[in-house]
Amino acid sequence: MALALKEVPKAPGRMPLLGHAAALGRQPLAFLRSLRSVGDLVRVDLGTMPVYVVTSAELVREVTVTQARAFEKGRLYDRVRPLVGNGLATAGGEVHRRHRRLIQPMFHQTRIAGYADTMSNRARALADSWSPGQIIAVEQVMGELAIEILAETMFSTDIGGPAVEAVRRDLPVILKNMLLRAASPKLLDHLPIPANRAFDAASRSMRQVIDDVIAGTRRSGPSHQGDLLSVLLDARDADTGEALSDEEVRDELVTILFAGTETTASTLSWAFHEIARHPEVEKQLLAEVDEVLAGRSATMEDVPRLAGVRRVLDEVIRLHGVTLLMRRTTQEVSLGGFTVPAGTEVAFSLYALHRDPALYEDPDSFDPDRWLPDRRKAPREAFVPFGAGTRRCIGDAFAWTEATIVLATVLARWQLRPAPGHTPKEAASAMAHPDHVPMEVVPRGVPLPARRVGG
Ligand code: HEM
Q: C or N: which end of the chain has fewer Cβ atoms within 10 Å?
């Protein structure tokens, strides 16, 4: 017989009024990981709001796939809705289904082949801009690159020029303050502090400039260059023939910018860091890149041939993935032997799932070869870096193509060495992204000085 919700075990360390907010604020990633040993379903109090965290691969699958119909997006998404509107990530029910159907073709493999030229050209331009011995802040450089690539694939026309610039300027400000906003009470949004003012100004400016580009493109007609904006404006519902309104198009563009930049930039930054720390992995990877590319930039055709790059990226994303996703029940469900009533906030951490020692041997070690076909052990539902079910990431193939092309194109020309003075640490926002990754760029073929491994 199913047990009542009040029987769900509570995470230790609860404090009056704050609940577990202090523990979550201090060491979010360690806290999320600690929940697995408490149970498959664990109660965590965010202030006075209880959230039920599912910690096993089976229950994550139930929430995202098997029983997905009984869930909508939860509180985290309510708090970002004023900014991203009712875009794909926040919309629910019929609106989500309709938009997903309309937008899916833009992320079809044949479209991504078109975007791949932008990825390749931008990666080459970046590699060309470096000089030997230069120290770069990898997380910043990768952040800018991801924004440029997305902005250029969205607005390929001249009208899009100012939008690319505005997104480059405003998006980092918004991303920096976004999680803070999502986690803090609504009441604080209007305090006239610099963080709020910067956030409000940046989000206003970005939405405005995107609105201007949409209006301009409507006037001059879609570019037919296959950019995301033109495809969105052209999209028609297969059943009703209906198009998206300008506001819906803007919300989708802003959503894609949010969902597609920090995630990809963080993955690439950790990849450069982990590769430099693991000389054996680096050696094999450079051999593969040289064999496939022979010094040129990577293209779409190269992606399937770069199997070692893929294993490195899989391992990076396993170790440093999406920290916390939320849902809310729309009807009563049975979850892990408990009866969960409608309106309950439910959460899960892909980061914690991917480091579960019951699923991954030596889960904290970076070992790309664990993804070799004969060594793969974890069941399929235990590796879900892009989520699962109807809310699975729509940009997974885009992200993978981009990360593979950028990594291989840079490694064909440069080796990145950790610069002394700072060891990157995980900071929790949407992803477990690195705080700062200073690295020195060294041309390939130059003998490297003896280096310290570790850190
Ligand atoms: C390494 C890079 C990326 C990771 C790890 C990632 C991860 C995820 C995850 C886990 C979800 C599911 C969220 C949930 O279930 O609540 C998601 C949704 C989404 N992602 Fe990504 N993502 C990445 C890159 C991208 C890119 C490049 C784009 C766009 C170009 C994108 C667009 C989206 C959108 C629009 C959604 C919402 C889909 C829906 O609800 O129908 N993502 N992503």
A: N
